[in-house]
Amino acid sequence: MSTTSREMRQKSNQFAAKARAGKNPINPSRKEKLAKQSPIGLWALGIVLFVVVGGVFFELFKVIFL
Fold it and tell me: Which top-level group of life is the source organism from (predicted)?
């Protein structure tokens, strides 16, 4: 689906208006958004998985060898 010249003019005008207003006219990329995100959630998930998987392995070890 191609954009019409009217849509292109409209987007261009929106871009120019944002630039004149001093706002960032370009939406941040996914990579930039992830760079700003705190890694604490990922660490918490890793710790929970470590404890759960470690508990499962420990219980299997206990059942098999004891």
Answer: Eukaryota
- Domains in the chain: boundaries: 5-65
- Tokens (6 digits) for 27: 């939406």
The whole-angstrom separation of Cα 54 and Cα 50 is 6
**In angstroms, what CA-CA distances link 23 with 26, 32, 51, 64, 65?**
9, 17, 45, 63, 65
Q: Residue 25 phi/psi, 5° resolution?
A: -75, -10
What pTM, to 2 d.p., does this model score? 0.46
Q: What is the pLDDT of residues 39-54, one digit of tens each?
A: 888 899 999 999 999 9
Q: CA-CA distance, 34 to 31, in Å (whole number)?
A: 5
pLDDT band at 21 (very low <50, low <70, confident <90, very high): confident
